[in-house]
Amino acid sequence: MNTRKHLPLLGAAALAAIALAGCAPSATVGAEPPAPAADPTSLTLALVPSQDQSGLVDTAAPLTEMLTEALGIPVTGVVSKDYQAAVEAMGAGQAQIGFLPSLQLWQASDMYDANVVLQTERNGNITYPAQFMTNNPDKYCEDTPVERDGKLFCNGADALKGPAGLDAIGTIAGSKVALLGPGSPAGYIYPMLALQEAGLDTDTDIEQLPVTANDASVLAVYNGDAEVGFSFWDARDIVKKDVPDVGQKVVVFALSEEIPNDGVAVTNDLSPELQEKISTALLEYSNTPEGAETLTSIYSITKLAPADASSLDVVARAAAKLGLQ
User: What pTM was computed for the model?
Assistant: First the structure.
């Protein structure tokens, strides 16, 4: 199947249809329990904008086409306006499948009883750090930057495992910082928590430059709009095709504590059989060359694996410390 489907933007208007379940009449005492609702005749897959939304429009079509063929029912992709909108879409019945960051996986499960069925692997890793990036290594690097895979790191961040270089983040005080919305574990939650634990007041000690996605954070640092930026590791790869020298001009000088990888949740109103078909189709797809290429282009995913929902508790605790729950 080769037809590309455009993925509409999922915003507030799509979320306004949340039903008031409390208005339903009570079941009659002694009556037979209602039969389970039939599975829907179409499904919606919610994606979060970890990169430019037009990029997701172009790259996610093979994924929805595969699911349509594997499940035998149409699957449409939507790009949420932000991370939280994807969770609310699942709670409102506007989406039945969600590719979500770790905090939103936990929220979908905790708030709406969604089932977390898969988690991602990236180059064999099931966790990743948030990275602190700068265009001013003389200020933030306590040693000479070293090159790895064509990109510069300092303060031990070239080990690619967090935490690293966090002693240097106190220097961020007074700087302009590119950061994602509060729903982003790597673009907000973990870096801001690290700043607070380093003694900074994140409301007054930094000048915040809000950005919408990880690639935008990298480009804000690259273009000089911000001196420091937060993102997942290594979001520089997303923009390398457009700015080949990004690895030299944007230096990673610190890594946060490790964060559980993102994954896939499905709503619990789907039958167990359909939930199993969805997770099996995605799992098998990730093990094919075509699937690995598509998932890598969407979210830098190299493989999908069965989920361990308990691993998400650490993200919920971090969000609680920042008052984001």
Answer: 0.75
